[in-house]
């Protein structure tokens, strides 16, 4: 190989190769430090676009799942109050039977009436209960967003309100246990109210089941989306560590070769001297 002074071709080649190796080493370090194999769009433009869409859908699903879980809590609170109503109605039906006992005195019936009236007032107040400021038994229905495309599920709150108003509240409105005759009427009305309440609790239970299944479905969907997204953008640490070691060796050897190439003109000058 000829030895020249003006243009050090060997040094230029060594410098170019060292630059390439240094660039690859820097990218490898960036991938390992970030945990992502797509550090910049040019690494995988199509993969980056797909990953962005996956990320967005995962975030929307997570938001929908929060809505669903809040709706589950809302429905569970509804059922909690309805359980209390059931307990009150059970006791009222018991009082209605006790009041029909001909051995009971006027004083006994007065005591039954006082408890009966208290339970009536308690049930009447249920309709005004709220969850985070939202009426538990509002006249308008509730629509819950259940997926990333904003699909909704109606919780049929209008049906619960109707059941509470017409099936429960109206059933015992104006009844009492002040006498055996009124207690008989009260018992029949309360039995109707209990049937209406059973239907209401069944609706709430169906809502909770549907919402719980939806939440589980969203969790499974996000797991699969995250897995697919990981295959696109997450770095293979073992493979990338091997690449890092390779590029590190190339940079070290390239640096040594560049030093030798830069020394060639000096060798030529020494020959001239």
Could you name the key traits of this structure?
single chain, 2 domains, 273 residues, rod-shaped, mainly alpha, 4% strand, two-stranded antiparallel ribbon, f41 fragment of flagellin, N-terminal domain
Task: Please characterize this protein's 3D structure.
The structure is a single chain. The radius of gyration is 39 Å and the shape is rod-shaped. It folds into two domains: 65 residues; 172 residues, f41 fragment of flagellin, N-terminal domain (Up-down Bundle), CATH 1.20.1330.10. It contains six helices and four strands. The chain has a two-stranded antiparallel sheet.
How big is the Rg?
39 Å
Low-confidence stretches: none
Overall domain count: 2
CATH superfamily of the largest domain: f41 fragment of flagellin, N-terminal domain
CATH structural class of the largest domain: Mainly Alpha
Overall geometry: rod-shaped
Strand content range: under 5%
Order of strands across the main sheet: 1-2
Please tell me the CATH architecture of the largest domain by its name: Up-down Bundle
CATH topology of the largest domain: f41 fragment of flagellin, N-terminal domain
Q: Write down the overall mean pLDDT.
A: 82
Number of helices: 6
Number of strands: 4
Report on the biggest sheet: 2 strands, antiparallel
